[in-house]
């Protein structure tokens, strides 16, 4: 059996039921991602109806929403050569950059430029 998932952005996919205790069904871990625009994102899971002539169960739906809000991050630049020279020519300077989010979000996928 499978659970049908739909995102608020129109994506649709199925997840396999991996455990059934006779009372509860369970899928494996499901990962979803928000878009890059501030706003609310939601996903609806549908466990489809089963059985014929009323012998099974009706479809069951559950929706989860996540609000993506802007928040502060800190940026640290270290190991930069001193003095730093600004030029219109690429001089091949190197440094290390660290990005930290006070809200504990995953900053690994964040793109930024110096």
Mean pLDDT: 77
Report, as a whole number of angstroms, the end-to-end distance.
50 Å
What class, by secondary structure content? mainly beta
**CA-atom Rg in angstroms:** 23 Å
Tell me the overall shape. Answer: elongated
Q: What is the string of helix and strand elements?
A: EEEEEEE
Number of helical runs? 0
Give the spatial strand order of the biggest sheet. 3-2-1-4-5
Strand content: 35-45%
Helix content: under 10%
| Count of beta strands | 7
What are the low-pLDDT stretches, counting only 5+ consecutive residues below 50?
Answer: none
For the largest beta-sheet, the strand count, sense and barrel status come to: 5 strands, antiparallel
Overall description:
There is one protein chain. The chain is mostly beta strands and 114 residues long. The chain is built from no helices and 7 strands.
Question: Summary?
Answer:
The chain has strands at 2-7, 12-20, 25-27, 39-47, 60-68, 73-78, 96-101. The protein has 114 residues and is mostly beta strands.
How would you describe this structure in keywords?
114 residues; mainly beta; 5-stranded antiparallel sheet; two-stranded antiparallel ribbon; elongated
């Amino acid at each position: 059996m499978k659970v049908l998932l739909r995102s608020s952005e129109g994506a649709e996919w199925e997840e396999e039921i991996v455990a059934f205790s006779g009372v509860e069904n369970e899928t494996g871990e499901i990962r979803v991602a928000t878009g890059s625009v501030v706003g609310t994102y939601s996903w609806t899971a549908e466990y489809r109806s089963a059985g014929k002539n009323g012998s099974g169960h009706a479809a069951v739906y559950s929706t989860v929403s996540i609000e993506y809000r802007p928040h502060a991050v800190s940026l640290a630049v270290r190991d930069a050569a001193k003095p730093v020279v600004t030029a219109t020519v690429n001089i091949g300077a190197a440094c290390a950059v660290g990005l930290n989010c006070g809200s504990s979000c995953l900053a690994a996928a964040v793109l930024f430029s110096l």
